[in-house]
Design brief:
Helix content is 25%, strand content 24%. It has three helices and seven strands, in the order βααβββαβββ. It has helices at residues 16-27, 41-47, 96-112, and strands at residues 8-13, 56-59, 68-73, 86-88, 116-121, 130-134, 140-143. Strand 6 and strand 7 (140-143) form a beta hairpin. The model has no long low-confidence stretch (mean pLDDT 92).
């Protein structure tokens, strides 16, 4: 049985490049180089038929460790809660007030990028604090 070597996470969205660039900023990811034979992604995009222009975009972890994120344009908008979401591990190893302060600082940074704060879940006897947010198209994600 072959083992999985890489994982790509695909997002349905209205504006693939805009959403991809948002996630590049959130995660420190980069836009991969354009396909061979094209100097820029704009050059590649303009080579496509009109109906495919701007239909997809991607970003990747510059270290090669994290999954590639792929964004594809779909005609319908988001209607219900995500069944899968990303957890941005901003507070790993931190507890209590230090963890909450770190998460709140990252929340504030992401709001300047267009994210929206949904709610803060405060630590209890079982779980540490986390913050539920939405990206620029309303997809839920967590800061934890």
């Amino acid at each position: 049985m072959a083992s999985v070597k890489q994982v790509q996470i695909t997002f349905d969205c209205a504006e693939p490049e805009r959403v991809a660039r948002f996630w590049c900023e959130v995660l420190g990811y980069v836009v991969p180089p354009p396909p061979e034979g094209f100097a820029t992604w704009d050059d590649f995009n303009h080579s496509l038929p009109p109906e495919r222009q701007g239909a997809a975009f991607a970003c990747s972890d510059p270290s090669g460790v994290g999954p590639r994120l792929f964004f594809q344009r779909v005609p319908e908008g988001k209607v219900v809660k995500n069944r899968v979401h990303l957890c941005v591990r901003a507070g790993t190893g931190l507890v209590g007030d230090e963890r909450l302060a770190t998460l709140e600082a990252e929340c504030a940074r992401l709001i300047t990028l267009g994210a929206a704060h949904q709610r803060t879940l405060y630590a209890d006897d079982e779980n540490e604090s986390c913050i539920v947010m939405q990206d620029i198209e309303g997809n839920e994600f967590c800061l934890d």
